[in-house]
Amino acid sequence: MKANKRLSGPGNTNLNVVGKFKCMLETKDKFSVQDIYVVKGLSKPLLGRPAIQALGKTKWTYTIALGLDAKPFSLSTPRRVPLPLMDKVKAELTRMEKLGVISKVDEPTEWCAGMVVVPKSNGDVRICIDFTKLNESVKRENYPLPAVEESLVRCKFFVLAN
């Protein structure tokens, strides 16, 4: 199909979009119909934000395995949130909790990482967490993701009626 959408790559360079097609993408417990854009001269396929968001949240829980030598880390003093940003930080944390990205912890915990608030150019705030100490203790797993080309080959094509 003809594509009227402008796509850009690194450095905001325009990508040469040749066309698009509809494709059903699926994971173990979700599926989503997405527009797949065909780009001339693209060396590696890209999965866009809409597809990632549609397929990203699953119903299963995931446990991060820690090494046997892991020692809990906790900040003795939390980083301060600037007072002018406090309301925006509370609003962003509430939004993230409603989305299921984070959850409240109402009991003592051995692990505690520092939160850093970064103001965005549009006036919103970005919540960042320093997981450096935790990451030192995480066991690395080997789950190579299939190439996008491989996933597209398995893609189920269909035509939507206009």
TrEMBL record:
Protein name listed in UniProt: Reverse transcriptase domain-containing protein
InterPro entries (alphabetical): DNA/RNA_pol_sf, Retrovirus_Pol_polyprotein
Gene3D superfamilies: HIV Type 1 Reverse Transcriptase, subunit A, domain 1
Species of provenance: Mytilus coruscus
